[in-house]
Amino acid sequence: MSEPLLQVEGLRVAFGAVEAVRGVDLTLGAGEVLGLVGASGSGKSLTALSILRLPPNGARVQGRIRFDGGALDTLGEREMCAVRGREIAMVFQEPATALDPVMSIGAQVAETVRIHTRVSRSEAMRIARQTLDRVGLEGMALDRRPHQLSGGQRQRVAIAAAIALKPRLLLADEVTTALDAVTQARIVELLLRLVREDGMSLLLVSHDLALAAGVADRIAVMCEGEIVVTGSAVEVLRSAHPYVAALREASSPAPVTSIRDPVGSPLLEAKGLVRSYANRRVGAAAPGNAAAVDRVSLTLHAGETVGVLGESGAGKSTLLRLLLGLERLDAGEVWLAGEAFSKVSAARQRRLRARIQPVFQDPYGSFDPRWTVARLVAEPLALLEPPLPPAERRARVEAALAKVGLPPDVADRFPHAVSGGQRQRIALARALVVRPQVLVLDEATSALDVITRAEILKLLATQKAELNAACLIVTHDLAVIRAATDRVLVMQAGRIVEQGETQAVLSAPRHPYTQALLAAAPDLEAVLAGQIPSPSHGGGRAPLR
Q1: CA distance linking residue 319 with residue 330, whole number of Å
Q2: 464 CB contacts (<8 Å, ≥6 apart)?
Q3: How far apart are CA 72 and CA 437, in angstroms?
Q4: Per-residue pLDDT tens digits of the chain, which is 545 residues long
Q5: Adjacent-strand bridge partners of 205
Q6: Sequence ranges of the chain with CATH classification 3.40.50.300
Q7: What angle do CA 433, 405, 351 make, to 5 degrees?
C-alpha cells in the first residue's frame, strides 16, 4: 500500500492553558477527498491552518505533519513559503476578506504564478486568464475588482488563485458557507472536477454533514478538538456516537406543522411592490432599468411564519428592505398593523418601527464594534414613547438576553468578545427587546453551523409564540424553510414564481425553478441509500439531491 500524500500525527494546538486541538491524526491519499466536519469551535479550521503552518499568533503547535514523505513540521518559514501555493494551497471561508479589494482579479490570480515561477507578467496574466476560464469565469474582464462580483464569483476567483499552479493538495475551509444551494452545488462540482482532472487531493472543511457526506470519500468528525469518528460517508452517518447523531439531526430538521388558516387582518401586507435599479451589468443589451423586485405581494398574520426562498440575486434582501421602509418604493404599498407604513409621515413611520424588527445576516457587520452588548440591545428602545428610565432600560436588556439564553454579564462585553452563535443571539435579543409584532430575518442563520442554527431556530419559535408575533424568514436555506415556516414563497429574478404551504411546495414543487433549488440541496437520505457514488473516482457524481 502506497504512503498517504498527507499524514498528520498527534497534532496539538494550544493557547496558553487551553488546548484547542488535541491529538488529531489524519491521512489523505493522492486524489482523495476527505471531509473534516464539526460545529463551530471544534478545531477544524485550526487543524487546516496548522497543516500549512499558519496558526494564529500565540498558538503553540506540536505533532508531526508529513507531506509526500517529507516532514513539514521541520521546515523553516522560507521553505514553507515555497510549499504554500505551489504544492499545498488553501481556499478560505470568506473570499470578500481573503481577496485584496484594491487588486484586480487577474492580478490576484497571477500573483501566485509570479511568486513561485520566473515567468513574465504577460505570461502570468495568460495563465490567470486560462485559470479563471477553468473555474467558470469565461470572458470576465481581468481588471474587475472583488466588490464588482457576486459571492459565488468571488469564491471562484479565490479557487482560481489557489489552483493556478495545480497544487497536489487543496485545503478548502467552509468554501460554501453563506452560499445558496445552487451556487453551493456549482462550487462543489467545480472542486470535484479539479480533483478528477488534476489528480489533486482535497481536504474539505465544513460544518455541514449533509454536504460532506455527498462529496467526500471519507469523513472525519471533530468535536472539541478531537477526531471522534472516521470512515466512509455511510459509516459515519450510521455511527451511534452522540455528537454525530446531533449533527445528523440538525442537518435534517423535522418539518413544522402548518398552523390553521390564519384569521383576522394581516399584521404585515405588501401590495404590488416594485423596485428597479439602473442596469449597469457588464454585457447588458441596454442601459435601462432592471427590476430587483417586480410586483410582489404577500401577507403575514399573527403567529404565522412565512419563508421567502431563492438563490442569491433573486431579490429577497431588496424585498426585505422595502418591507422595513429602508428603501424607496417605485410602486406598491406596505401596510403594518392596519396602517399604510410606506405612506405615513417620517415621524409616524419611526414610531411604527417598534412594531417590526429585523435580524440581519451578519450581526458583526451590523453592530457598532465600539458599543457594548447592552447598548446594542437597548438601541431599539429609543423608538418607544415615552422614553424608559435607565434602570428599566437595563432590566429590559437583561430580560431580552435571558430570553435568548445569554447570561447578564454578556451585556458588558463588546461584539468581538463573543462567539458567532452568541452574536446571532444578541441580534435576536435586540429585535425582541421592544416586543415587536413582526420579526423579519434576513439570512440570519446562513453563516452558522447546523447545531447553532437549530438552537437559534428553536429560540425564534419560542419567542415568536410568546409574543404571538408574525415572522418572515428570508433565506436560501431549504433546511431553515422546512424546519421553521408554515408557508413559503419562492422568488426568482424579483418575482414570486411559486407559493403555498411549506410541506406541499417542498414535497411536490410545480415550478422548474423550485425543482432546481430542491435538486441542488445536499441529501443525507440519498447518501444512505447509495444514490450518490464516490465523488473523485468512477467518472463522476450524481446531483446533490
Answers
A1: 12
A2: 303, 305, 439, 471
A3: 57
A4: 578 999 999 999 999 999 999 999 999 999 999 999 998 889 999 999 999 999 988 999 999 999 999 999 999 999 999 999 999 999 987 787 889 999 999 999 999 999 999 999 999 999 999 999 999 898 899 999 998 887 788 889 999 999 999 999 999 998 887 778 888 888 889 899 989 999 999 999 998 898 899 899 999 999 999 999 999 989 999 999 999 999 988 887 776 655 556 667 899 999 999 999 876 544 444 456 778 899 999 999 999 999 999 988 889 989 999 999 999 999 999 999 999 999 999 999 999 999 999 998 777 778 899 999 999 999 999 999 888 999 999 999 999 999 998 888 899 999 888 877 788 889 999 999 999 999 999 988 877 888 888 888 888 989 888 999 999 999 988 889 998 999 999 999 999 999 999 999 999 999 999 999 998 888 777 777 766 554 544 444 333 33
A5: 36, 173
A6: 291-520
A7: 10
E strands within 195-353?
A: 201-206, 218-223, 226-231, 268-278, 289-300, 305-309, 331-336
The class (CATH top level) of 291-520 is alpha beta
Spatial separation of the C-alpha atoms in residues 449 and 40, rounded to whole Å: 6
Which helix (H) or strand (E) covers residue 65, if one does? strand 60-67
Those residues whose C-beta lies under 8 Å from the C-beta of residue 386, and which sit 6 or more positions away, are none
Q: How many residues does the chain have?
A: 545
Contact criterion met (CB below 8 Å) for 85 and 112? yes
Find residue 233's DSSP bridge partners.
Answer: none
Residue type, 396: R
Q: Is the peptide bond before 386 cis (omega within 30 degrees of 0)?
A: yes
**DSSP secondary structure of 146-212:** GGGS-HHHHHHHHHHHHHTT--SEEEEESTTTT--HHHHHHHHHHHHHHHHHH--EEEEEES-HHHH
**Cell 470578500, residue?**
96
Among all chains, which residue has been given the C-alpha cell 475551509? 173
Cell of 396: 429590559
**Residue in 352, 302, 300 with CA at minimum distance from that of residue 474:** 300
pTM, whole model, 2 decimals? 0.82
Contact partners, residue 409, CB within 8 Å, separation at least 6: none
Please state, as a whole number, how many other Cβ atoms lie within 10 Å of the Cβ of residue 212.
28
Alpha helices in 252-345, H assignment, sequence order:
316-323
